[in-house]
Amino acid sequence: MSDTASSKDGREPRRYLDKQEAIRHLIHASIRLIQKQEDPFAIHLLIHSSDKMLIDLAKKRGDELRVDWELYVKPEYKAAFFENMRATYNYLKHAASDFADELPVHDIMMMNVSSLFFCVANYAKLFREFTDHMMLFHIFMLNIWPHLLKPEAVGVTALLKTLRTTQWMTPSEY
């Protein structure tokens, strides 16, 4: 425990939380909220907070992410790409410059599950951990996008057959 980690008001903390735990909490909460079909805007904040923390942490540690948008976007388009990618997140976080603006809402839930899918992949790469929550979410995503599977992967035929039995379930039924 460092001096900077001690409580500023003199109380002893009940416990300490590191960045890995913080990110895992955000990802798990996002998965549970999606499963319960809760508010997509609250879910969006959790997912983008996770994503931003994963990106920042990977940079600080000098690690590579499994999905690093910066590797695919031309340098001259990076600022615009990330501004667009984080537009809803920033709208929900701030009000200083866009206090009178309205947020155009499109398919936020599909954007959420897509972003969460990449967060889980990046978390697994960065921390070499894949939790039960994350496994169930990946299986759920394969119901939405079965074409993500490589046709030559071991057991893919049996997996796709099993997925067909659950493809019409809602997240909460799943």
Description:
Helix 1 packs antiparallel against helix 5 and helix 5 packs across helix 6. The protein is globular. The protein is mainly α and 174 residues long. Helix content is 55%, strand content 0%. The protein has 7 helices and no strands.
Q: What level of helicity do the residues show? A: 55-70%
What percentage of amino acids are in beta strands?
under 5%
Summing up helix and strand content along with how strands pair, one would put the structural category as mainly alpha
Largest sheet: none
Low-confidence stretches: none
CA radius of gyration = 19 Å
Report how far the terminal alpha carbons are from each other. 41 Å
Element order: H for helix, E for strand: HHHHHHH
The overall average pLDDT, rounded, is 83
Please tell me what the overall shape is.
globular
Number of helices: 7
Tally of DSSP β-strands: 0
List keywords for this structure.
mainly alpha, globular, 174 residues, 0% strand
